[in-house]
Amino acid sequence: MTQFISAYDSLAEFMAGLDPVKVLAFHAPQALQNRVEELLDKKQEIGLSEEEQSEMDHYLIYEHIVRLAKSRARLQLSKVSA
After folding, report:
1. Cα(4)–Cα(70) distance, rounded to whole angstroms?
2. Displacement of CA 57 from its chain's centroid (Å)
3. Residue 53 and residue 32: Cα distance in Å, rounded?
4. Considering its fold, how many domains does the chain have in total?
5. CA 2/CA 81 separation, integer angstroms
6. C-alpha to C-alpha distance for 20 and 5, rounded to whole angstroms
7. Cβ proximity of 12 and 68 under 8 Å
8. CB atoms within 10 A of CB 72
9. Residue 58's domain spans which residues?
10. Tens digit of pLDDT per residue, the chain (82 long)?
């Protein structure tokens, strides 16, 4: 798992370096947000199939990478402001 975390960090660093302001403004498309909410509701009500759980896991990785990128973008912008 550590190798994956390092890969996620590298990707987030790359994304943040492209344009920190745009990275901070980024939000997942509404359709994606709706799908995640649908899966979360289903998980609480009746549980997810193996395929749905895998889909959810991918969304969580996606969210993790975006959060890392936004964190790094904030850091880059704070260095520029200082």
Report:
1. 18
2. 11
3. 15
4. 1
5. 33
6. 21
7. yes
8. 19
9. 2-81
10. 456 667 778 888 888 888 999 999 999 889 999 999 999 999 999 999 999 999 999 999 989 889 989 999 999 899 888 7
- Smallest CA-to-CA distance from 40 within 59, 21, 65 is with 59
Alpha helix locations (H) across the chain?
Answer: 2-18, 20-25, 30-45, 50-81
d(CA 57, CA 71): 21
Amino acid at 18: L
Q: Please check whether residue 48 is in contact with residue 39, taking contact to mean a CB–CB distance below 8 angstroms.
A: yes
Closest CA to 39 of 25, 27, 29, 54: 54
Q: Round to whole Å and give the CA distance between 62 and 68.
A: 10
**pLDDT recorded at residue 50:** 97
| Beta-carbon count within 10 A of 17 CB | 13
